[in-house]
């Protein structure tokens, strides 16, 4: 059964009750379309430029390459222990408390593959924060602090062949050779994808195959 993208927008909007800020999480395997869905939701909710919704990706909490080298984890960048999970949970708490003027979140520069501090301002007018990343439903370590801070978590799924092809293309776009991109995806990304897949059953909604323009696209749950 298909569901209109507009229905997803309405569901996201309904999370905000009595004017209190709400947090929606979107999770799924690497390359499943989390960022695309989050960006389209926020664009649809903001209409003519109103900052009613904000997009805060988890990727800004990647540890820097320098720190990963120090820890000996750079060869598996993207695994759960290569992020500052406690810092991410603390940011979600600040956003949920809704007591500050502007909250600055870190971004992630794909070309450099490095986090950028203070890159994403969340204005006081933002009543819904859409955050997306691989490990929102993980129950180990500091990741376990994340789910209680989110009003809902949606699990984004994609056709496996298309997901892998898109991941390889993404790595090539940002500098890897085809051979290196395939090797990274099949070694590191796939290991992480299997870990994320095990959290699917804890999601409030499973969304598959978002395509087209906001307001006209269809998804299959």
Give the overall shape, derived from the CA principal axes.
Answer: globular
**Total E-strand runs:** 9
- Could you give me the name of the CATH homologous superfamily? P-loop containing nucleotide triphosphate hydrolases
Q: What is the number of helices?
A: 6
The average pLDDT is 87
How much strand content do the residues show? 15-25%
Mind telling me which CATH architecture this is? 3-Layer(aba) Sandwich
Strand order of the largest sheet: 3-6-2-7-8
CATH top-level class: Alpha Beta
Largest sheet: 5 strands, parallel
In short:
It contains six helices and nine strands.
Report on the architecture of this protein.
The protein is an alpha/beta fold and 221 residues long. It has a single domain (3-208), classed as Rossmann fold (3-Layer(aba) Sandwich). Helix content is 35%, strand content 20%. It has six helices and nine strands, in the order βαβαβααββββααββ. The protein has helices at 5-14, 34-46, 65-71, 85-97, 160-173, 178-197; strands at 3-4, 22-28, 53-55, 103-109, 114-122, 128-132, 152-157, 205-208, 218-219. The strands form three sheets. Strands 3-6-2-7-8 form a five-stranded parallel β-sheet. It is globular. The model is unreliable at 211-221 (pLDDT under 50).
SSE diagram, text form:
Elements: E1 3-4, H1 5-14, E2 22-28, H2 34-46, E3 53-55, H3 65-71, H4 85-97, E4 103-109, E5 114-122, E6 128-132, E7 152-157, H5 160-173, H6 178-197, E8 205-208, E9 218-219
Parallel strand pairs: 2-6, 2-7, 3-6, 7-8
Antiparallel strand pairs: 1-9, 4-5
